[in-house]
Amino acid sequence: MEQGVNKNTIVIRDPGRLLLDGVYHGGDQEWYVDTWRQRAGCGPTTAATLLYYLAQRDADKQALWPTAPTRTREDFLQFMDLVWEDVTPGMRGLNRSVLFTDGVERLSARRGVALTAHVLEVPETIGRRKGFDHFSSFVMRGLRSDCPVAFLNLSNGKAERLHSWHWVTIVAARWDAEHPENDWSVTVFDEGKSIEIDLKCWYDTSLLGGALVWFD
Q1: pTM of the model
Q2: Domain for residue 199, yes or no?
Q3: Is residue 7 part of a domain?
Q4: What sign results for the dihedral spanned by CA atoms 180, 213, 144, 190?
Q5: Interval 166-189: pLDDT, tens
Q6: Is the alpha carbon torsion for 161, 164, 166, 172 positive or negative?
Q7: Among 65, 82, 136, 183, whose Cα sits 20 to 30 Å from the Cα of 103?
Q8: Per residue in 142-181, is it b (16+ CB within 10 Å) or e — as a string?
């Protein structure tokens, strides 16, 4: 995301850690061989994306996936398969943040890496949600800690280019410094692509809510 006039921007320190084969921005659930995994695999794929980044970021987290610095589609798919064993969707996918965090923490513990999950739930009912500042601040804290932020979106509302009942990875945020209430967008990695999403629009119009998750 490029910073322009009156724009504030936060980006994870090295998005290139998630550029696979020089082409793909993070993983794509369609890479799974099994049909069910292709359909339900957005959560495990997003978890793999976060962990792949952390494995390259910190020496004490390399054990999550030591070959992550190769940054190839083949290597990432092997990691996606490993992650699936712990971050395993049910018939409704990973439709609750606890299913995501429990799986990630189980996997990291097996590999001898300590991770702490940070979670923000977004209520289903729009009227029960706190102000957008509360939500956007959580995104910024994750990005400033140099961790991609997992985003569970159960209903895309009026936000374009965003699938409902879906996990994606936030890697950057941008907002109008003078009027953030009107302009607050994020860059997400989904299906191996980099996509711009109006996060304020999602927060104001999503009918089912969702969650945000990052780790340190």
Answers
A1: 0.94
A2: yes
A3: no
A4: negative
A5: 999 999 999 987 766 668 999 999
A6: positive
A7: 136
A8: bbeebbbbbbbbbbbbebeebeebbbbbbbbbbbbeeeee
